[in-house]
Amino acid sequence: xxxxxxxxxxxxxxxxxxxxxxxxxxxxxxxDGADFxxxxxxxxxxxxSLQHAGSFKARGAFTNLLTRSVPAAxxxxxxxxxxxxxxxxxxxxxxxxxxxxxxNVASSAKIQQISAYGAELMISGERYADALxxxxxWVAQSGAMPIHAFDQEETLLGQGTVALELExxxxxxxxxxxxxxxxxxxxxxxxxxxxxxxxIGVEPELAPTLxxxxxAGRPVDAEAGGIAADSLAPRRVGELVFPIVQRHVSTTVLxxxxxxxxxxxxxxxxxxxxxxxxxxxxxxxxxxxxxLPAPNERVAVLICGGNTTAVDFER
Length: 315
Fold this sequence. Notes:
Layout: H1 9-19, E1 28-31, E2 43-47, H2 57-67, E3 75-78, H3 82-94, E4 98-102, H4 108-116, E5 120-123, H5 128-142, E6 145-146, H6 153-169, E7 175-179, H7 184-193, E8 198-204, H8 209-216, H9 229-232, H10 241-248, E9 249-255, H11 257-271, H12 277-287, E10 299-303
Parallel strand pairs: 2-10, 3-4, 3-6, 4-5, 7-8, 7-10, 8-9
Antiparallel strand pairs: 1-2
Helix pairs in contact: 1-6, 2-3, 2-6, 3-4, 6-7, 7-10, 11-12
C-alpha cells in the first residue's frame, strides 16, 4: 500500500497511463466571468460532469479495479450516489459483480444509474455513514473487495488525474476551486499540484466537513445536510485525505444552498451544462462572491458531477 503522505505526481502520472483507455479526457471551456457575475475576464471550467457515469468518480473506480486483485465475490462500495454509479459502471465494463450501498438521501438519478449498470443496489440508512457501515458488514460476510469513496490510496491516485489533465489543458491557471465531500478529489488534485496552483476547497454551509477538520487539526464529525447531501456530506473527511489537504490546500469557502442552486441555473443558462448541486458548488463560491479573485488570478473551477434530473425534457 502507498502512504497518503507519499502520493506524488509521478504516481498519478503512472495511474493515468493505466486508466486512460477506460476514462474520458473531459473538456475545458473558457467563459466570460461576467456571465456568472464574476469580475474576471476569463474563467476556465473543467467539465468532469461529462465523465463516464456522470462524475469524476469513474477515475478512482477504474484505478481500483485495474490495480487491485478482484476476488470472485466481486466489489462492494458505499456511496451517496456518484461513487456507487462509477463503481457499478467500471464493474460492468470489467465484467465483475458489484454490490452498492446507498443511503436514503441518494437522488433518484443516481439510483437509476446504479441499477442500469447491473449492480446490486442496497438502500441502507439515512446518510453515507450508515451505508458505509452496511457495506463493511457485507465485506466481512462475503469477502468482496471494498472500494472506498475517498479514503483509499488507489482512489486518491485516480482522482488526481483530473489535475494532470487540467494542467495539460490550462497550464496558466493560478487558482482552482474544488467541491469537497470526503476529500478524495481535492486531495488527489492537491497531491498533483503540490502548491504550484492555489487549490481552494468549497463546501456547503450545512456540510462543513473539511472546514471543521482544518480548524481542529484532524478529521472530526460535522453536519451532513443541505442540498448536496448525496455527494458532499459524508460527516468527516478521510484520515488519508487530511494530511495532503492540510499541507497543500490553501483554504476553504462555505456556500449556502441557494447559491448552489443559482450556480446550477447559471451553468444551464449560459452553457447548457447540467450540473448536480455538488457539481456546481465550486462555481457557487464565485457567483455568490464568497470567493473574490484578485485581478491577476487565472481562476479555474471543477464542475465535478452532472447526475441530476433537474432538467425535465418531458415537459
